[in-house]
């Protein structure tokens, strides 16, 4: 049996009331419905600050309308970009990681937690870079523009060459 509802009286400035009435909150029509839904959303966001799974669900929900508009546009224009879809699938994971695992200064192992956080971020960035480079392996990369990756590849390869050279020089000096 659901709990009893508790009446709540709220005074709002006319501008706030106008904003509330114009606010599009899914599955909420009345001001009372909207306020209840907004409170639940705020509570969920707060919980998502410590729970990766909840933070991931929130991030995916935030990006879903954008992803849907992109897919609709792609279908209408008969185009597709694996690069765009891959990035938009990568983004919620990174957002969830950042919002849910950022160490708190009160943590006893703050330094260790920061090192782990940095490693997790490094893993995500590297995974995106590697998967993007793999897309550039085939001449028919699925992007809106066939040149999208090809134009950036020389700069990436030059940087990789410079990093490798600097590492080799550093190792040669250390030996």
Rg, rounded, reads 23 Å
Question: Uncertain regions: pLDDT < 50 for 5+ in a row?
Answer: none
Helix content: over 70%
Overall average residue pLDDT: 86
User: Helix/strand/pairing class, anyone?
Assistant: mainly alpha
- Give a count of the beta strands, DSSP E runs of length 2 or more: 0
Q: Main sheet?
A: none
Q: What best-fitting shape do the alpha-carbon axes yield?
A: flat
How large is the count of helical segments?
Answer: 7
User: SSE order in H/E notation?
Assistant: HHHHHHH
| Distance from first to last alpha carbon | 73 Å
Strand content: under 5%
Features:
single chain, 175 residues, mainly alpha, 0% strand, flat
Word description of this protein:
The chain is mainly α and 175 residues long. The protein has a domain at 51-137. It has helices at residues 14-22, 31-48, 52-77, 82-101, 110-135, 147-150, 153-174. Helix 2 (31-48) crosses helix 3 (52-77) and helix 3 packs antiparallel against helix 4. It is flat.
Which SSEs are present, and which pair or pack?
Elements (H helix, E strand, L loop, with lengths): L13 H9 L8 H18 L3 H26 L4 H20 L8 H26 L11 H4 L2 H22 L1
């Amino acid at each position: 049996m659901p709990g009893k509802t508790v009446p709540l009286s709220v005074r709002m400035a006319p501008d706030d009331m106008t904003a509330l009435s114009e606010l599009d909150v899914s599955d909420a029509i009345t001001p009372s419905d909207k306020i209840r839904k907004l409170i639940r959303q705020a509570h969920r966001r707060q919980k998502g600050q410590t729970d990766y799974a909840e933070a991931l669900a929130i991030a995916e929900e935030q990006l879903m309308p954008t992803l849907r508009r992109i897919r609709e546009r792609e279908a209408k224009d008969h185009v597709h970009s694996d690069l765009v879809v891959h990035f938009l699938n990568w983004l919620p994971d990174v957002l969830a990681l950042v919002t849910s695992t950022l160490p708190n200064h009160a943590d006893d192992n703050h330094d260790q937690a920061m090192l782990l956080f940095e490693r997790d971020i490094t893993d995500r960035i590297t995974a995106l870079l590697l998967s993007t480079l793999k897309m550039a392996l085939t001449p028919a990369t699925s992007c809106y523009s066939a040149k999208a990756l090809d134009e950036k590849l020389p700069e990436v390869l030059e940087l990789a060459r410079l990093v490798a050279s600097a590492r080799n020089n550093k190792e040669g000096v250390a030996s």
